[in-house]
Structure prediction request, 244 residues.
Amino acid sequence: MPMMSGGAGDGTATADAAALSIGAVLSRLRDEFPEVTISKIRFLEAEGLVEPRRTPAGYRKFGPADVERLAYVLRAQRDHYLPLRVIREQLAALDRGERPAPPRPGEPGEPLAGAEEPGRRPAPRIGRAELLAATGAGADELAQWESFGLVEAGRDGGYDAEAVTVGRLIAELGRFGLEPRHLRAVKAAADREAGLVEQLVAPLRRHRNPQTRAHAEATAQELAALSVRLHAAMVRSALRVLPR
Prediction:
């Protein structure tokens, strides 16, 4: 496979003539990827998977290599259910002129035997002792987190992998005097955002086409990432306008 470049063009007349707007790129990609959107292309750019050059006015201009790169990313997500981390590694290998190694069995993004549907597998679970060890919390602290709904055990008594991240962040915020009871509003906001994402992807998840259902998972992750970025930007904006 030829090496792909995600960088800006050289500004020559030939490059300018071949450059495409984001709308033109969308039209080209939709023949093969009918569910791709402009927001999806912008998201992949924000994640550093493609780097179109910009005009002095700030408009994106995509070259043929950029379009090929986008198609590679979308194909890897659709056909192999690869997460962006693995796709990014593959693109880096291609840029070096190497042949990217296929994901090893059991790596994220590869369907597992017995999965309910292609591209989906049970989320990893950890036990109570593992969670306490990973976060450095005591049993009383974990009980307090649970009492405020910040961390929840499943029916099997285990926790999802994100519980470790949540626990560590709660502990970090505690260093500044924020107690679990103060974070109930954060949890409520997260639940509302998750509900909104679920409303948007629910029709895709109910689709009969397994590829469409797999696309629902990628879309949910994309929306979650954008939601987090929006939340952070709004918090920063609110802090700037607070009276001093």
